[in-house]
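Thread: quick sanity check before group meeting

JM: Hey all, I'm pulling together slides for Thursday and realized we never actually wrote out the predicted structure for the chain we discussed last week. Dropping the sequence here so it's in one place. If anyone has concerns about the input, flag it before I start.
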Amino acid sequence: MHELIEERWSARGYDPDATISTEEITDILEAGRWAPTWGRIQPVRFVVGLRGDETFGQLAAALNRGNKGWAPSAGALILLCTSDAADDAKLHDYGAVDLGLAVAQMSIQAVSMGINPHPMAGFDASAARAAFDVPADKRPMVILALGRLADDPTLLDPDVADRDSQPRERLPLSEIAFAGRWGEPFTAAK
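JM (edit): ok, ran it. Output follows.
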């Protein structure tokens, strides 16, 4: 597995004084822009806020309680929206897939630059829609926090420091990768 994938994790302990430049944000947005897309329709759109600007404040205000305590320390918040239509199941489904691919590529790009990405679904999509005049045919799905991690975890909120110090765990492949039938673990050829 590539080291950038191994290094990626959704931390919360951002340094509230660290900044992210517009050049860095542009590189991260370019990674999202170049993500694979169904039928080349390119349905993903971005609303970008840098800490201290009005957009960032509106994005932070839309966060759910669990994210409001730590995400405002990020250097940037990006709302990702995708095309949607109630009468088009394919667009609804594949637009979400395209958005997920954009988040993944943006995350790997961020990690390559020493920036920690944390995608969040915990936000009020209706509030975000209203704040940014998101059109009815677009669906707000994710706010991506981007920040530099604090050097001294003892300066963080104890809950944030505790959560960030927990080991990263994933289910073993034998429980999620199957061959032949559902539940029969995939095994590498010997």
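AS: nice. The first helix runs from residue 3 to 7. The two ends are 19 Å apart (CA to CA).
JM: adding both to the slides.
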